TrEMBL record:
Residues passing through the membrane, by range: none
Protein family membership: Belongs to the NtaA/SnaA/DszA monooxygenase family.
Alphabetized Gene3D superfamilies for the sequence: Luciferase-like domain
Domain Luciferase-like: 27-390
Protein name: N5,N10-methylene tetrahydromethanopterin reductase
Phylogenetic classification of the source organism: Bacteria, Pseudomonadati, Pseudomonadota, Betaproteobacteria, Burkholderiales
Database matches in InterPro entries: Diverse_substr_monoxygenases (IPR051260), Luciferase-like_dom (IPR011251), Luciferase-like_sf (IPR036661), NTA_MOA (IPR016215)
Length: 458
């Protein structure tokens, strides 16, 4: 039997997300991002296609590395303006029954006690369909926005993140017993005080002495996503992540990352299959190869090279505006997304130039699109799944909504015919649909904090 392929829509609560410039295409509707009905209809469409989730990226700064300012980002709507993705979830959840929601939140700038309540609230309101994409940030503009001169060093951000995770685990997993809420109307007791406890965390970065404000939600801890594939990022993922998002590179490179993360998870006492890996992909689908190629060439006419460079400059931590078109670029020691720098070096070679970068960004991003018939795209998905061990794909939008309609109407039926895609949703929470259980397994590091175990200083 072929491996079952899982699909997420890779989105952001903004106009221009990954493929820069395509918002100018006359059929694109992403400028409606401020309309709630747009997102509700979007979620219903994805659920019709049996997508596992909508995966929301987010940033809390602006892309101001290129040219030393945000002008190019503003001109080209490069993830600015950007609204809070968490605000969209309840409305989309109310319009659907099964679709999961993976939401990016930057723990470096989120107060953990309040963030834990926010995620528990969303888990309650969605009936257990919330996930959290754990990020530590990479934009100096975001650091300055909250009064810090610049980013914490890359690996130090992960050290902070490890402590943050232990704190929110204590709140989600250890503060309330499952049977703490008795809702005894006759006796006038809603929650049994003996089954609710204050957690005590006195760490290097955080000090909290408080009980969690929310009663246990269906999943307690949200489904945990993580997108780092640097050596330190892989270590963090092996400890915490249930779903890992990797950038599409060469098959052997992706397989190496998948194998490394799963091997490290096993070394941490986890089951390697407790980690699902989603790879970024950008399909341009047609009924025939010729139709897909025609659509791709049409899309290319709307690409913004300036927008693509502004996005790449920030995520790679390098101001490309300082270099002539064929001048060698010094990658240096970037404190941005280290795995992006590694991936770009693998794709463009050790000596980058602006010309090489633009050759890689044929559709306004560093992600090379897959262009072909539905048959061809289905073949590619299955080949990548079998060859690398990935579990599914985060599909980046191009021209919305047609890019996802093409996948749903043309590709999904072929995958179903081949036994590589579900024909109906399973019941239960987001985690149960992905892993077969509502709560984190006992092998996960969060389990040590359950039932009041070890809720003191760590």
């Amino acid at each position: 039997m072929p491996r079952e392929i899982r699909l997420n829509a890779f989105e952001m609560n903004c106009v221009g997300h990954i493929q820069q410039g395509l918002w100018t295409h006359p059929r694109d509707q992403s400028t409606r991002y401020g309309e709630l009905q747009y997102w509700v209809d979007y979620a219903k469409k994805l659920e019709k296609g049996l997508f596992d989730g909508m995966f929301f990226a987010d940033v809390v700064g602006v892309y101001d590395v290129y040219g030393g300012n945000a002008d190019a980002a503003l001109r080209n709507a490069v993830q600015v303006p950007v609204n809070d993705p968490l605000m969209l979830i309840p409305a989309m959840a109310a319009a659907t029954q099964h679709l999961g929601f993976g939401v990016t939140a930057n723990l470096t700038y989120e107060q953990p006690f309040l963030f834990a309540r926010r995620m528990s609230t969303l888990d309650h309101l969605t009936g257990g369909r919330i996930g959290w994409n754990i990020v530590t940030g990479y934009l100096d503009s975001a650091a300055r926005a909250i009064g810090i001169e610049g980013q914490i060093a890359h690996d130090d951000r992960y050290d902070l993140a490890d402590e943050y995770m232990s704190l929110v685990y204590k709140l989600w997993e250890g503060s309330w017993d499952d049977d703490a809420v008795v809702a005894d109307r006759a006796g006038g007791v809603y929650a049994d005080p003996s089954k609710v406890r204050v957690i005590h965390h006195h760490g290097k970065q955080y000090k909290v002495d408080a009980m969690h404000l929310s009663a246990p939600s269906p999943q307690r801890t949200p489904v945990l996503y993580q997108a780092g594939s640097s050596p330190r990022g892989c270590q963090f993922a092996a400890t915490h992540a249930e779903c890992v998002f990797v950038n599409g590179q060469k098959m052997d490179g992706v397989k190496e990352i998948v194998d490394t993360i799963r091997a490290q998870a096993v070394a941490h006492g986890r089951n390697g299959e407790d980690v699902k890996v989603f790879m970024g992909a950008t399909p341009i689908v047609g009924r025939t190869d010729a139709e897909a190629k025609e659509k791709f060439e049409e899309y290319r006419r709307y690409v913004s090279s300036e927008g693509a460079l502004a996005h790449a400059a920030a995520s790679l931590g390098i101001d490309f505006a300082k270099y002539d078109i064929d001048e060698p670029i010094d990658t240096g020691k970037s404190q941005a997304i280290v795995s992006n720098v590694t991936a770009m070096t693998r794709a463009a070679g050790p000596q980058w130039t602006r010309r090489k970068l633009l050759e890689q960004m044929v559709l306004g991003s560093r992600q090379t699109p897959w262009v072909g018939s539905a048959q061809s795209i289905a073949d590619q998905m299955m080949s990548w799944s079998e060859a690398t061990g990935i579990d599914g794909f985060n599909l980046s939008r191009t021209v919305v909504p047609e890019c996802f309609e093409d996948v749903i109407d043309l590709v999904v039926p072929l995958l179903q015919e081949r036994g590589a895609y579900k024909t109906s949703y399973g019941e239960g929470t987001y985690r149960k649909k992905l892993f077969g259980h509502d709560r984190l397994p006992p092998s996960h590091s969060a389990a040590q904090y359950r039932s009041g175990n070890n809720t003191g200083t760590k």
